[in-house]
Amino acid sequence: MQAQVEPHFLFNTLASIEHLIETDPPRAGRMQRALIDLLRATMPSLRDGGVVESRTLGQEQAVIEPYLAILKMRMEERLDTVVDIPQGLLSAECPPMVLQMLVENAIKHGLEPQAPGGQLKVQASVVDGQLQLEVADTGVGLSPDWQASAGAGLKNIRDRLALRYGTAAQLSITPRAGGGTSVVVRLPYRVVSPSQT
Question: pLDDT: is 3 or 122 the higher one?
């Protein structure tokens, strides 16, 4: 399994900070703080080799928010983000890296290729007793042969969900009306006790 912080992303962020130190020091400071927050949130997983039994949705949110803050500073007005995770769901069990990989995919394949960028929305809710995570973008949308060309990231998520939850978890990918893509993961809603994290 890939490391939680891709070296390419890390080096690009450090290069951006170096450039901003000379051109926009306050923005360089904000990007540096976001990178520190991202590394702090991913350190527990990096220490144990990425083998984490249980993580909470709150811990996953702590990874994606600084990641999105960094991308927002790099993409500027090309990226609009909305993270809608209710406080009451922060203790819900969430497989490590699933939400992060969905966010990365939406930006890399949906929003970055589109000149004006667009919006990325991350939502969590409970639907029919299951935790539902949705990552939706207003990007380029699905190509006609998207099922044949679906990348390793989505396959990895599907395999991990099947291994952990069997048929009790699903991942669905659909085009959005007006453009873009919606990816929805549904899995059993379980609360993680503090002793499990």
Answer: 122
- Per-residue model confidence (pLDDT) at position 1: 37
Residue-wise pLDDT tens digits, 12-65: 888 888 988 999 999 899 989 998 888 888 876 555 545 555 689 999 999 999
CATH number reported for the structural domain that contains residue 141 in this entry:
3.30.565.10
SS (H, E, C) the chain: CCCCCCHHHHHHHHHHHHHHHHHCHHHHHHHHHHHHHHHHHHHHHHHCCCCCCCCEHHHHHHHHHHHHHHHHHHHHHHEEEEEECCHHHCCEECCCCHHHHHHHHHHHHHHCCCCCCEEEEEEEEEECCEEEEEEEECCCCCCCCHHHHCCHHHHHHHHHHHHHHHHHCEEEEEECCCCCEEEEEEEECCECCHHHC
Does 98 map to a domain?
Answer: yes
Note every long-range contact of 157-166, with CB atoms under 8 Å and residues 24 or more positions apart, other chains counting: 157/98, 157/101, 157/102, 157/185, 160/95, 160/98, 161/95, 161/98, 161/185, 161/187, 164/95
Task: Give the pLDDT of residue 123.
Answer: 97
17 lies in a domain? yes
> Can you give the residue range of the structural domain that contains 75?
7-196
Number of domains in the chain: 1
Question: What are the beta bridge partners of residue 172?
Answer: 184
Name the pTM for this structure.
Answer: 0.83
